[in-house]
Structures are given as C-alpha cells and as structure tokens.
Design a protein that fits this description.
The chain is of the alpha/beta class. It contains twelve helices and eight strands. The structure holds adenosine-5'-diphosphate and magnesium ion. Magnesium ion (MG) binds next to helix 1. Adenosine-5'-diphosphate binds next to helix 1, strand 7 and helix 10.
Length: about 260
C-alpha cells in the first residue's frame, strides 16, 4: 500500500470508551509536534467534528461526500483552530451510506479509494469510527495501515477486545492483508479504583507490548473540553489528561519510527 502517509483507524465496537476523545487529542498532539494531520469523522453522531469546533450548521461537504467519491479530500477537509490539523466533518448523510452501497461489490473500499487519491498533504490521517462493526468501520479498517484501540479500564474490557481483534484478523485475511495493530491505549484510568488497576494488569499480561505505556487518566478537564469545541490540549494544556495524550503521541511516533527502521 501507499507509504506517503499513515492512516490510523481508531476503533472499538463499544461506545463511550474514548475513541473520539483519543482521535481529537492524539491528532492535536501530533499536529503540535509538527505533523500535518487530518481527522476523518466517520461517526454519524459527529462528536469529533463538534469537539474540534466545527458547528453542525456550518458543515456543508462531509465525510459522506468523500466516501461516495463526489468530492476529494482537499475539497471536504476544513481547517480547525489547531494549526496543522484539518478535519473532514460528519453529517447525518452518513446514516444512508450503508443502505446505499450495500449491493456494491466495492462496498468496503470507498474510503480507501478516496484517501488514496490524497496527494500527500497529510502525514497522519486518523479515522474516528462509530461504535459498531458496521460498513463504515469496515471501510475505515480496509483503508488503514493500522488500528489504534482505546480500551476503557473496566471489567468487560478484555471480552470486547477479543471480538475486535478477531475482526481485525478477518479484515487482514480478506481485504487488507497488511493491517496492523498500532496499539491499545487504556483510557479513563482511575487510580483510586482497585478494579481499574486489575484491568490494566490483565490487559498488559494478555497483550504485552501492544499496550502503550501511557495510561490516559479519567480527568474532568478532558470531558469538559468538547463543550467548548476545543481539544483538551487547547482547553487546558497542563491537565493530566492533556499531558497523557502528548505522551501517547510520542509513543505513536516512536512506534512508527521503529516500524520504518525495520
Ligand atoms: N480521559 C477521560 N476523562 C474523563 N472523561 C473522558 C475521558 N475520555 C473520554 N471521556 C468522556 O467519556 C465520554 C465518552 O468518550 P468518547 O471519546 O466520546 O467515547 P467514544 O467515542 O468511544 O464513544 C465522553 O463524554 C468523554 O468526554
Ligand atoms: Mg465517538
């Protein structure tokens, strides 16, 4: 596949595990380091778009137009308040995508085709997925170089994860043989909760080096930021959540360096 950029899909079929928060803040952190970053919001709910300050009323072209091929990346991407960070916003049109393309032989390749046409304006493209294994998520996995999985530190985390890893294996066996796991990031960690520490230990035991060292803490500043249309890193750079996402970005970049060197 093409090596001019890295396409990372942020996926987990469960809702509320920190996908969108990770997409927004990892993208911001990568942009702050000087990478040229694009977020593609593939969730009809559009939380990544709202959280990056793109008002629903101002959204004209969207990820739907990109998917169906009526518009290019350059035409649908809009700048955010973060230098170096653009977004392809989502609109409710996305809800119709699955039905419209269900009978197409290429139904999982729409996003890949659209992103392949991008002529290297971005070094990282992060795709924020909806909370299910639907055709939008399949498109995101078929288009990506790797999958980054946010995992909430709670009791059923591992159970959902094995389902997700099975799905990644299926995609690898069919439409995207080089799809990699970029890593698993533990989110909303609460050090006062004994169970959370237990979950961290279990996940590290089972998945070893695939799990990032960075733990994203549960942090009220992180949850407040989207209501101001800002990434946590702009809203409160010093808070523990922002600092954790900056650390995660350096781990992601480190992994990419190691991969390139290999
Ligand atoms: N580290 C965190 N600390 C506190 N709240 C968080 C954190 N990460 C996410 N949240 C909150 O949890 C909720 C779900 O997060 P979100 O990123 O939208 O999950 P998903 O995209 O997987 O559905 C949101 O209200 C978000 O603000
Ligand atoms: Mg989300």
């Amino acid at each position: 596949m093409f090596e001019k950029n890295r396409i990372i899909t942020i996926a987990n079929q469960k809702g509320g595990v920190g996908k969108t928060t990770t997409a927004i803040n990892l993208a911001t952190a990568l942009a702050a380091i000087g990478e040229r970053v694009l977020v593609v919001d593939l969730d009809p709910q559009g939380n990544a778009s709202t959280g990056l300050g793109i008002d629903r009323r101002t959204r004209k072209l969207s990820s739907y137009d990109l998917l169906v091929g009526t518009n290019s990346v350059a035409e649908v991407a809009v700048p955010t308040a973060v230098p170096n960070l653009d977004i392809v916003a989502s609109t409710m049109d996305l809800l119709g995508f699955e039905m419209e393309v269900a009978n197409s032989a290429n139904r999982v390749f729409f996003l890949r085709n659209a992103l392949q046409a991008d002529d290297a304006r971005y070094s990282y493209i992060l795709v924020d997925c909806p909370p299910s294994f639907n055709l939008l998520t399949m498109n995101a996995m078929a288009a990506a170089h790797s999958v980054l999985v946010p995992l909430q530190c709670e009791f059923f985390a591992l159970e959902g994860l094995s389902q997700l890893l099975d799905t990644v294996n299926q995609i690898r066996g069919t439409v995207n043989p080089t799809l990699d796991i970029q890593g698993i990031v533990l989110t909303m960690f609460d050090s006062r909760n004994n169970l959370a520490q237990q979950v961290v230990n279990d996940v590290r035991t089972h998945l070893g080096e695939k799990v990032y060292h960075t733990l994203i803490p549960r942090n009220v500043r992180v949850s407040e930021a989207p209501s101001y249309g800002k990434p946590a890193i702009l809203y409160d750079l010093k808070c523990a959540g922002s600092q954790a996402y900056l650390q995660l970005a350096s781990e992601v970049i480190q992994r990419e360096r190691l991969r390139k060197a290999a």
